[in-house]
Amino acid sequence: MKRNETVLRMIVLAFLIALGVVISPILRVEGMCPMAHFINITCAVLMGPMDAFLCALLIGVIRMMFLGIPPLALTGAVFGAALSGILFKVSKGKIWAAVIGEIIGTGIIGAIISYPIMALFWGRTGLTWLFYVPSFIAGTLIGGSIAFGFLIAIRKSGVLANMQRKLGSEIITEPTTTIYAGKVVHQ
């Protein structure tokens, strides 16, 4: 990876982290943070599973430190971000696979792992193993739908592949036909 690509990746990652912290209160209720899922999926598609995991981890830590959010900020983000990037790669660039990864990783795995964390370390009593599953899945469906629409739009315009190229990411975006400056372009 070239030095310019590394610097640009760090800048984009920092931007996504800052954006994730700032927009996370939108539509947020405990156990449901749709905009975090939007960021997770977008980062996973742009930069891959490791960067998406790091982005989700840092957003969660910052939210916990400065916004007083419980550990759900971590358990409800890191698994979905990583699985989103992994399924995007394995599916050879299918955006819907990235969304499914977020839903399974956060909506099921993260939700179930949240139970012992909240019960043992946060003192929440009366919870069951599946307590967070409905709200986590609802949040991932909302955030995933927004991310899906956004990523499909930038893929059709050719911006997604261009961003992946500039970031030095593996370009595995599905081929599309795009109209650019009045000309049909096949990617």
Structure notes:
Helix content is 70%, strand content 4%. The chain is mainly α and 187 residues long. A hairpin with a 2-residue loop joins strand 1 (177-180) and strand 2 (183-186). The mean pLDDT is 87. A two-stranded antiparallel ribbon has the order 1-2. It is globular and about 50 Å long. It has one domain (3-186): Arp2/3 complex 21 kDa subunit ARPC3.
Task: Provide a brief overview of the structure.
The chain is mainly alpha-helical. It has one domain: Arp2/3 complex 21 kDa subunit ARPC3, CATH 1.10.1760.20. 70% of the residues lie in helices and 4% in strands.
Draw up the topology in text.
Elements: H1 3-23, H2 34-47, H3 49-67, H4 72-75, H5 78-90, H6 95-121, H7 133-156, H8 159-166, E1 177-180, E2 183-186
Antiparallel strand pairs: 1-2
Helix pairs in contact: 1-2, 1-3, 2-3, 2-5, 2-6, 2-7, 3-5, 5-6, 6-7
